[in-house]
Automatic annotation (TrEMBL):
Membership in a protein family: Belongs to the IFI44 family.
SMART domains the record matches: TLDc
Domain TLDc: 5-159
Record protein name field: TLDc domain-containing protein
GO biological process terms, semicolon-separated: immune response
Signal peptide: none
An example Gene Ontology molecular-function term: GTP binding
Domain of life: Eukaryota
UniProt-listed InterPro entries: GTP-bd (IPR006073), P-loop_NTPase (IPR027417), TLDc_dom (IPR006571)
Length: 455
């Protein structure tokens, strides 16, 4: 018996995986082999648990539908909050479309899979019916390029979404006491050099990775309510276009924390797009003033008004934090990895310690979304951390998963603990920077009497 093989290329598989995190795909049905009919589909795909439909058309679109529910020809309208429609093309980022709130995801009839907006195997033929707005809303051109004829249709069983490690790979105490302890450590931090008043941490990462949201989240967690001082949101181009140095207050009207978070424009893979590497070097050396407007085609010059000539140790970056979206780890292109490598090389030369934040762990793994305390038990999150460690040449010990506040109205203790753990590490790494400074220069400033808080 010949083996039925998937039509998905390696690149398409990666994009598909980025839509729902840790999962293996098991091919159940291939229309060109088993028949482009509803009966052939149901014969192989009924009662299989979570499945994903992968449809191919001549315009080069690969698109379909995921459901966590069974097909069983019950005739019922099936509600499934996890269901989504998607489209992946060679050029664009994957498109993921969630259902319209309150509407059923699909009709579980004896027809081809019917998601309202997309009906597959329509009239038992290699074609779809497209009705955007019915249960799902999308732009038809972006979903399938307006090409309704299918060249292939595959259905995969999605397995292994719920894998948990027997033991977490890092131990975190998820208690109110721990949260308080972390807050105290951060608030009482004092650099080991008398003239330096705070740690200055630089956030660098691809467009939309969650750099601005990280500052907003730390600010909110310390303020005790949601804040959105830094503009955050989704777009193809970076929403942050200015260099910003943010201070944080310990509670409303409280004192300023000994931490400055520096937010930057997103990195893009092309040479003349996004944050420029020369600008990163100038920021690290303390030459870039707050509110400097980034210009990808023309990095900051010494003669520009945004250039700070009189630099002290207070202006220099003490820790560089790379921010990467956990859902997009497998989509990091060789060009983007090269850019990271070039930045790391420059940062190493400046003697600045580096950390990596893996954001959006909630979007990347459903069991983490359900309960954030699973973050170090999720097989998928650990796998992504290892992949990043290898791809970027950063030790696993320097990689910290976090969840930023994105759509919630209330603070959450577990979210705060994970965020504060990341900040604690940034302060520890900043200490390493101060210890690396030229001893002769720094001895002049180093306090003999100051005692560091015990961490
Ligand atoms: N679910 C979830 N969403 C997040 C998280 N972090 C950020 N987001 C969302 O991701 C989107 C992009 O976040 P930003 O903070 O604007 O990302 P950025 O890195 O500052 O992006 P640019 O400034 O455009 O380069 C926003 O819609 C955030 O709400 C997270 O941990 N979980
Ligand atoms: Mg931003």
């Amino acid at each position: 018996m010949s083996v039925v093989r998937s039509n998905l290329s390696k690149e398409q598989q990666k994009k598909l995986h980025s839509l729902f995190g840790h999962a293996t795909l098991h091919l159940l049905y291939k229309a060109s082999v088993h028949g482009f009919t509803a009966a052939a589909f149901h014969c192989r795909c009924d009662v299989q648990g979570p499945t994903i439909i992968v449809a191919y058309n001549n315009a080069g679109f690969v698109f379909g539908a995921y459901t966590s529910k069974n097909y069983s020809q019950s005739g019922q309208a099936i509600h499934d909050q996890e269901a989504f429609l998607y489209s992946i093309t060679a050029e664009n980022k994957p498109l993921r479309v969630a259902g319209i709130t309150g509407q059923a995801a699909f009709t579980d009839a004896a027809t081809g899979p019917n998601y309202g907006a997309l009906v597959f195997l329509h009239e038992d033929r290699p074609q779809i019916q497209s009705n955007p707005g019915q249960a799902f809303n999308f732009n038809a051109a972006a979903m399938h390029g307006g090409n309704l004829a299918l060249t292939e249709l595959e259905v995969y069983r999605v397995e292994g979404l719920g894998d948990l490690l027997a033991k977490p790979w890092r131990i975190i105490q998820w208690t109110a006491e721990r949260k308080k302890e972390l807050m105290n450590v951060i608030q009482s931090y004092k650099p080991d050099i008398n003239t330096v008043h705070q740690a200055r941490v630089l956030l660098v990462g691809p467009v939309g990775a969650g750099k601005s949201s990280f500052f907003n989240s730390i600010n909110s967690a310390f303020r005790g309510n949601m804040t959105s001082q830094a503009i955050a949101g989704a777009g193809r181009k970076s929403l942050t276009t200015q260099f910003r140095t943010y201070t944080i207050k310990a509670g409303k009207g409280g004192g300023t924390l000994p931490l400055i978070l520096c937010d930057t424009m997103g990195l893009e893979e092309d040479a003349d797009a996004g944050l420029d590497i020369d600008d990163i070097v100038n920021i690290c050396k303390g030459h870039v003033k707050d509110r400097y407007q980034f210009s990808p085609s023309a990095p900051l010059q010494e003669t520009s008004p945004g250039y700070n000539k009189d630099v002290t140790l207070n202006d220099k970056i003490n820790c560089v934090v790379y921010v990467v979206d956990t859902c997009k780890v497998s989509l990091l292109t060789p060009k983007m990895l090269d850019k990271f490598a070039a930045i790391r090389k420059k940062t190493n030369l400046l003697g600045i310690p580096q950390l990596l934040l893996m954001t959006k762990v909630d979007e990347a793994c459903p069991i983490v979304a359900e309960d954030l305390t699973n973050v170090y038990r999720s097989v998928y999150i650990q796998k992504m951390a290892r992949e990043l460690s290898e791809g970027l040449g950063i030790p696993l010990s320097c990689i910290i998963p976090v969840k930023n506040y994105s759509d919630e109205l209330d603070l959450n203790q577990d979210t705060d603990i994970l965020l504060f753990t990341a900040v604690e590490q940034m302060l520890n790494y900043s200490d390493s920077f101060f210890e690396n400074q030229d001893t002769e220069e720094v001895e002049l400033y180093r306090s003999n009497t100051h005692i560091r808080p015990v961490l």
